Amino acid sequence: MSAFDPFALAAPGLRQLKPYQPGKPVEQLERELGIRDALKLASNENPHGPSPLAVAAVRAKLDGVNYYPDQHAFTARLAGHYGVAPECITLGNGSNDVLDLVARAFLVPGTNAVFSRHAFAVYPLATLACSAEPRAAAPLPADHPSMPYGHDPAALAAAIDDATRVVFIANPNNPTGTWLGEAALHDLLARLPTHVVVVLDEAYGEYARALEAAAGGERWPDGLRWLDEFPNLVVTRTFSKIYGLAGLRCGCAVSSPAIADLLNRVRHPFNANSLALAAAGAALDDTGFVERSATANAEGLGVLAAGFARLGLGTIPSRGNFVCVDVGRDAEPVYQALLRDGVIVRPVANYGLPNHLRVTVGRSEDHARVIDAFARALAA
Ligand SMILES: *Cc1c(COP(=O)(O)O)cnc(C)c1O
Fold first, then answer.
1. How confident is the model at residue 23 (pLDDT cuts 50, 70, 90)?
2. What is the DSSP pairing of strand 322-326 with strand 356-360?
3. Residue of 241, 273, 319, 348 to mutate, ligand 1, most atoms within 8 A of C-beta
4. Whole-model pTM?
5. Is residue 303 in contact with ligand 1, taking CB distance under 6 Å?
6. pLDDT tens, 282-318?
């Protein structure tokens, strides 16, 4: 009898799957270097913390954690907020969870999922977990005049074939921050065939809307408005970014009731926990917190981009709460030097961007420190 070999027994997609690499936690860096006051701008978290209303709601809910979460009530609440029927909502343990549900509902071996080359790492992971083929479409070129490294709608459409079941589009995209405007996105949705489900990942939509308005641009496209027009559309939202609840894990998909019914068949009951739901409900109410976060982000993004420009570094245009900076050489040593200086940013070589680092917009008092640390790291 041969030796037990779990790798040979695993689902075929898992053999190619490289696990998600999270940003380095602050505590870990401080322990490793024996420092304090490390600054983490690596995971696009809201630097202003959770809303105080969300914290109070979690405290109030703690005594009730012996009960299973009331997802029904929260779903109704969310449906009201979005102006859709409750049957359109699928709750997630973070939006990562619902991306996975879409993959599990529609991808099997022999099918493929299409996304743009520098897109969110979870799309190929969710695809490979179903042993389907991840298919990266060519991005816009690095020297594109307005949207370097951005999604190329023509390339995305061209990558689709009869075996495609899912297209993932993050708008704006992570890690590049690039985006599709209302007209371009609508055109793309209109040309996708009806044998594909299209996921519009709006994790940064609230930031983008404020940035678009500040730039005096066209209206930011809100995917929820297109659900009636495109029955194959799934819009995903999260409480991890502007709502400041990344550690609690809450997100959702909004789609036709027919798609939501399928997603709910593979969803674990009670996937979003009661503390997360309590916090998310309170965070929805705190519109002032969301507005202040969006305004501070728009300012901070400008400060960061200007600071990098002073260092002679280019940045990719962003509608998110982060910016990708081109350090003009292998970014790994620069990343390491920044770590030694107590500043954690995100390497994006695994996204096909080896010369870039992604920096989350921090608090206003953080940005001078970040730019100074980059200056030192580049001089080292
Ligand atoms: C951060 C992010 C998410 C959110 O993930 P959660 O699981 O909700 O924390 C989703 N999509 C993209 C593109 C992201 O960058």
1. confident
2. antiparallel
3. 241
4. 0.96
5. no
6. 999 999 999 999 999 999 999 999 999 999 999 999 9
